[in-house]
Backbone:
C-alpha cells in the first residue's frame, strides 16, 4: 500500500512538472524551462525504481497521479 501512495505522489509531481515545462516553453519562460527538467529526471528515476519493486497494479496510482498532476498544472499556469 505504501508503494502505491509513493507512486501516486511521485507521478503527480512528475506530470505536474512536465506540464509546467511545456507551458513554460510555450510562454517563453526560459529559466523555468531549463530548471524543471532536473526535478523531472529525479521523478523519472524514482518512478522506474517503484515499477521494478512493485506489482502490475502500480499503473493505477501512477495513472491517477499523472491525471491530477496535469490538471493542476494547467489550472495553476492559466494566467
Residues:
Amino acid at each position: 500500500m505504501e508503494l502505491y501512495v509513493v507512486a501516486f505522489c511521485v507521478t503527480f509531481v512528475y506530470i505536474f512538472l512536465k506540464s509546467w515545462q511545456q507551458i513554460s516553453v510555450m510562454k517563453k519562460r526560459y529559466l523555468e524551462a531549463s530548471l524543471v527538467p532536473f526535478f523531472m529526471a529525479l521523478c523519472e528515476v524514482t518512478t522506474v525504481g517503484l515499477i521494478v519493486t512493485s506489482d502490475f497494479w502500480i499503473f493505477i496510482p501512477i495513472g491517477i497521479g499523472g491525471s491530477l498532476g496535469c490538471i493542476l498544472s494547467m489550472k495553476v499556469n492559466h494566467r
